[in-house]
Design brief:
The structure holds 2 protein chains of 2 kinds.
Chain A (H helix, E strand, L loop, with lengths): L4 E4 L2 E2 L2 E2 L1 H17 L3 E7 L6 H6 L4 E6 L8 H15 L3 E5 L2 H14 L3 E5 L1 E5 L2 E8 L4 E7 L5 E5 L16 E4 L12 E7 L12 E5 L10 H10 L2 E4 L1 H5 L20 E5 L5 H7 L4 E6 L12 E4 L2 H15 L1
Parallel strand pairs in A: 1-4, 1-6, 4-5, 5-12, 6-11, 7-11, 14-15, 14-16, 16-17, 17-18
Antiparallel strand pairs in A: 2-3, 8-9, 9-10
Chain B lengths: L1 E6 L1 E3 L21 E3 L1 H17 L2 E7 L4 H11 L3 E5 L9 H12 L6 E5 L10 H9 L3 E10 L5 E8 L2 E8 L2 E5 L11 H7 L4 E4 L18 E7 L8 E2 L5 H15 L4
Parallel strand pairs in B: 1-4, 1-6, 4-5, 5-11, 6-10, 7-10
Antiparallel strand pairs in B: 2-3, 7-8, 8-9
Helix pairs in contact in B: 2-5, 3-4
The chains are: A alpha/beta, B alpha/beta.
Chain lengths: 327, 264
């Protein structure tokens, strides 16, 4: 019978990404309810030395697939290796990150294994020994709770920044095992030919713990410097509303909302954003929301933990000054 | 170059979402239906590829009948023909069921490239494209911001958005690509376009026409069961931070963030 919870660890350029630890932490909690073990699957090139890190967050075992062709994620190679490992290892549950990589991988892996997959979950539980997953739909305008049919393993992806991270425990260690797999070059059709890093790249919005976001009230692209200044001070990523993006003030990759990124930072500071429903949908899982808007009737104030009714061009620089004093 | 675009119809993003009395679906009364925004980028990119390479753009949608309207809109933008799969057996399909239907339509078509939106803005799953690519046994490149097909139309290079950067991925055709916002600026349907679209071919097929068994689609074919749909937890409106001047407000906010919320 299928046993155990697997997580697919994620690495970029040899460094484990935070989602890997979030997944391991959650898998540990679920596995304890089932009295089963946690196995982390780590794919990469010369990556084995990173495996013990996963043990500290609760993995009992790490299976390492080390191959130069796995250094950077490609759909073909990763789906092939993970599917082979799942077919021989027969886990009951596989958890992945709902990152760009995880979302590319999850559907194809599920189709290859002939099982169901629940995408972008924000909460998991175990009922009658089976995985139950809760996920936002319509970018968070509603939530669906789903379970699986005829699916071994049950596969789900977890939204970054949502699952609670265990305290790493240095006294815990995982058994590290080499994966057995084969890769046929003729099957590897997608190749990464170039990696373009964003200049001065900050943490991506979907992974950011703090976000400072600007909307139509910013009045023009030249005024975002006051948001960037605040963001620099509190180590935040700058986001934008759809109207700011559609006006050409900010790049598409900065958009927060239903047709942009869905974010869940600890702190979301909305400046000059009225709070259109498609924007609120994209940021309502933020833990603390601050709104600065001169219109006291703006819908954003209905969602904000703290609101300032005032001119953002005066309030935001004052805020930057005050925060500097306490840091 | 034969280009296929998979198109979904979704509620307008400005729509309020209400839960239906059954507790496991969304109330569809009073909803304005639109082409899934990401699919519009796919349609536009298909038209641009045809402008460069010639050939034909075919739009494929999966029922119900109202989806005809969205396919006609894509035809009015300039696509050549449409196929709608409309069958009561489709109701309740999950991503796998929809991908099976699309694969059954596509298996009899000669194609070079398939374009989809990166996800539907309704259920936000974003996996129909990758399951379809798996069923067809072709490579996929998802969340794409730029598409460059080689002069001889044998390979495609695509810019794929990842956290904090872009990956340039190359693969031989045929391949499946999913569109991200920023790929292009979709054109509007012109009045002559709308007139012409009325005469363009739009085939309607049933599950039986496609040689699919009803057990493969709809409720019967799902691997996921929705137990419950619930509204989001209401956030209570919080405090309005007081202060006579912007400086005072800033001081009070920082104190709250530091002492009460404990996040700064």
């Amino acid at each position: 019978m299928a046993q155990g919870i697997w997580i697919i660890a994620e690495q970029r350029e040899g460094e484990l990404r935070k989602i890997s630890f979030e997944l391991t932490s959650e898998a540990r909690r679920l596995a304890d309810q089932l009295s089963q073990s946690v196995t982390a699957i780590l794919l990469g090139s010369n990556i084995k030395e990173k495996a013990p890190e996963l043990g500290k967050y609760g993995a009992d075992r790490v299976i390492v697939a080390d191959d130069s062709r796995l250094a950077t994620y490609t759909t073909d190679a990763y789906v092939s290796v993970i599917a082979q490992l799942a077919q021989s290892g027969e886990p009951a549950i596989i958890l992945l990150g709902a990152s760009v990589q995880g979302k590319d991988l999850s559907g194809r892996l599920a189709a290859r294994l002939g099982v169901g997959m629940v995408q972008d979950c924000v909460a998991f539980s175990i009922e009658n020994g089976n995985l139950v997953a809760k996920r936002p739909i319509y970018a968070g305008k509603a939530y669906a709770t789903a379970t699986f049919k005829d699916s071994v393993p049950q596969i789900a992806t977890a939204r970054p920044n949502v699952l609670e991270l265990n305290e790493p425990d240095g006294s815990k260690s995982a058994e590290v095992v080499d994966a057995e797999f084969s890769l046929d070059d003729s099957q590897l059709k997608t190749k990464v030919v170039e990696i373009i890093q964003e200049e001065g790249a900050k943490v991506d919005l979907t992974e950011a713990e703090r976000i400072v976001s600007g909307g139509r009230g910013m009045k023009g692209p030249e005024n975002y410097n006051i948001l960037e200044e605040l963001a620099d001070i509190i180590n935040a990523t700058v986001g934008a509303s759809r109207s700011a993006v559609d006006s050409g003030w900010r790049p598409h990759s900065d958009q927060v909302g239903q047709t942009g990124k869905v974010v869940s930072p600890n702190l979301y500071i909305a400046c000059g954003i009225s709070g259109a429903i498609q924007h609120l949908a994209g940021m309502s899982t933020s833990k603390c929301i601050v709104a600065v808007n001169k219109d006291p009737e703006a819908p954003i104030f209905q969602k904000a933990d703290y609101g300032i009714v005032g001119d953002l061009f005066e309030v935001v620089p004052a805020l930057s000054e005050e925060i500097k004093k306490i840091l | 170059m034969n280009i296929l675009v998979c198109l979904k119809q979704v509620p307008d993003t400005e729509s309020q979402i209400k839960i239906a009395p059954d507790g496991i679906s969304i109330a569809t009364e009073n909803i304005k239906w639109i082409i899934n925004p990401y699919d519009e980028y796919a349609v536009e990119e298909a038209l641009r590829l045809r402008e460069k390479f010639g050939g034909e753009v075919t739009i494929i949608g999966v029922g119900p009948k109202r989806v005809t309207e969205s396919i006609r809109t894509a035809l009015a933008m300039g696509a050549d023909k449409g196929i709608l799969v409309d069958d009561p057996a489709i109701t309740g399909s999950d991503s796998l069921g929809i991908a099976r239907i699309l694969a059954a339509v596509i298996k009899d078509i000669d194609y070079d490239i398939i374009l989809c939106g990166k996800q539907g803005v309704d259920d936000d799953y974003g996996i129909v494209g990758s399951i379809l690519a798996e069923l067809l046994g072709i490579p996929q490149i998802s969340v794409v911001l730029k598409v460059e097909v080689s002069e001889d139309a044998s390979t495609v290079k695509a810019h794929r958005e990842v956290e904090g950067g872009t990956l340039v991925i190359e693969t031989p055709l045929p391949a499946l690509i999913t569109a991200q916002k920023g790929l292009n600026e979709p054109r509007y349907a012109s009045l002559p376009g709308i007139m012409k679209a009325k005469k363009k071919p739009l085939d309607v097929k049933t599950i039986a026409d496609l040689g699919l068994d009803a057990s493969q689609v709809g409720e019967a074919g799902t691997k996921i069961k929705i137990m419950q749909i619930t509204p989001p937890e209401e956030r209570e409106a919080g405090k309005i931070v007081e202060g006579e001047t912007p400086q005072e407000m800033a001081i009070n906010l920082v104190r709250l963030l530091h002492e009460e919320a404990k996040i700064i």
